[in-house]
Write a structure and sequence with these properties.
The protein contains 17 helices and 13 strands. It is an alpha/beta fold and about 375 residues long. It has three domains: about 250 residues, Vaccinia Virus protein VP39 (Rossmann fold), CATH 3.40.50.150; about 45 residues, no CATH class; about 60 residues, N2,N2-dimethylguanosine tRNA methyltransferase, C-terminal domain (Phenylalanyl-tRNA Synthetase, Chain B, domain 1, 2-Layer Sandwich), CATH 3.30.56.70. It has a seven-stranded mixed beta sheet with strand order 3-2-1-4-5-7-6, with helices on both faces. Strands 9-8-10 form a three-stranded antiparallel beta sheet. Helix 5 packs parallel to helix 6. The longest helix is centred in the middle third of the chain and has 19 residues. Bound molecules: S-adenosylmethionine (SAM). The site of S-adenosylmethionine has 21 residues, from helix 2 and helix 5.
């Protein structure tokens, strides 16, 4: 499957590079239905893919989530592009989807949905407020952003305009981008007396995606400021409410995922739900194609379950390429050896799930450096 973005503006748009986030989306919705963490009964759960193009994500929800879990789930797929919706309707794969063709903001203002997916070209900013108004007391919001230059600090004007903050274009930029987007979503939620609980947050190539549970709580929403601060550029890249230059932010300094839910996003589960097999695969596929598709599915969820515990609480975030300078060594340590050594020393450690090789640990910076030097 190709990596990288496809150009905007074509009717019937389908971007295979977005297969990985769709796979994660299938796993998350299936998990919510199986474990009942959104609504206890799931009965009549209203799911909206608000910017669906030709509806690949919705169709994958319908075809890959076990039928029994989908009983009574109502999936609506919307796009304002008439051509895309026409194409989607004519696809004829037997899935039961409510197709809708209007501006997503109007649809979300008018109707209430418990699960909303926002997957625009570029910034999601113009859709977030409408989504907040659509969600009931407890809901789920999945948001993709592809305006990574703004979120990673290389387009500073756009960053300030859209997100009221600024990333720095350095080794922390991907984690910062996620946190800047989460801060924006948290502030929008607070305006509607709601709080966010991050379930899964990932930077993957040319896009990032945050999945948050949104809950009504006037009291906690008033405390949103306690979760939004700065990332300092000290050696530990401290996240803090206090602004100490140089720093990036304002950004979310709270958890990036839910340990239990993200802990279940495993390679085995991904293959079980989303993997084709010889009975269910396109006729023209060879065994090699099947193998490649399995590898692609595994890649979609790599390192998520292993890092879920640390991503759900305070941790030291250390890009591996910074370690030689900090530890006075000629080259970076091998990731697996370092994780093993940290665990042997009694710490939690994992590889971060974002693209760049990064170590996450609950060790302090001094403890990490000692372990690296003793490797
Ligand atoms: C990146 S594509 C969506 C891709 C799709 N979610 C998928 O997984 O393949 C973005 C879509 O948003 C649609 N769009 C843009 N602005 C919109 C709006 N205000 N209301 C509804 N659809 C909109 C575009 O027509 C386009 O098809």
């Amino acid at each position: 499957m190709p990596r990288g973005p496809i150009s905007a503006g074509e009717t019937g748009f389908y971007n295979p590079a977005m297969a990985a986030p769709r796979t994660r989306s299938v796993l998350l919705l299936a998990d919510a239905l199986e474990y009942g963490w959104l609504t206890r009964s799931n009965s009549g759960l209203r799911v909206l893919e608000s910017l669906c193009s030709t509806g690949t994500r919705s169709r994958r929800w319908c075809t890959e989530i076990p039928e029994k879990l989908l009983e009574n789930v109502i999936i609506t797929a919307n796009d304002r592009d008439a051509g895309a919706i026409e194409w989607a309707k004519s696809y004829g794969d037997g899935t039961v989807i409510n197709w809708s063709q209007e501006d997503a903001r109007i649809l979300m203002h008018r109707d209430s949905f418990q699960w909303i997916d926002i997957d625009p070209f570029g910034s999601p900013i113009t859709f977030i407020d409408s989504a907040m108004q659509s969600l009931p007391r407890v809901g789920m919001l999945e948001i993709t952003a592809t305006d990574t230059a703004a979120l990673c600090g290389s387009a500073s004007d756009a960053s300030k305009r859209r997100y009221g903050g600024l990333g720095l274009n350095d080794s922390y930029r991907h984690d910062d981008a996620i946190r800047i987007l989460l801060a924006t979503v948290a502030k929008a939620a607070a305006q509607h007396d709601r709080i966010i609980e991050p379930i899964l947050s990932l930077f993957d190539g040319h896009h990032l995606r945050v999945s948050v549970r949104v809950r009504k709580s006037r009291k906690k929403a008033s405390q949103v400021g306690e979760m939004i601060g700065w990332r300092h550029r000290d050696a530990a890249a401290t996240l803090s409410l206090e602004k100490v230059e140089p720093c990036s932010g304002p950004l979310w300094i709270g958890p990036l995922c839910d340990a239990e839910i993200a802990g279940r996003i495993t390679e085995e589960k991904a293959l079980q739900l989303c993997g084709a097999d010889e009975d269910v695969m396109p006729e023209y596929w060879t065994a090699n194609d099947l193998e490649l598709s399995h590898r692609e599915i595994i890649r979609s969820v790599r390192f998520i379950a292993e890092s879920a515990d640390l991503m759900s609480r305070n941790h030291l975030f250390m890009p591996i390429d910074l370690l030689p300078r900090l530890a006075g060594l000629a080259g970076p340590p091998a990731m697996n050896s370092l994780i093993g050594a940290l665990q042997t020393a009694g710490h939690c450690a994992a590889r971060g799930p974002n693209m760049d090789p990064t170590i996450l640990t609950d060790a302090t910076l001094d403890e990490l450096i000692t372990v690296v030097q003793n490797l």
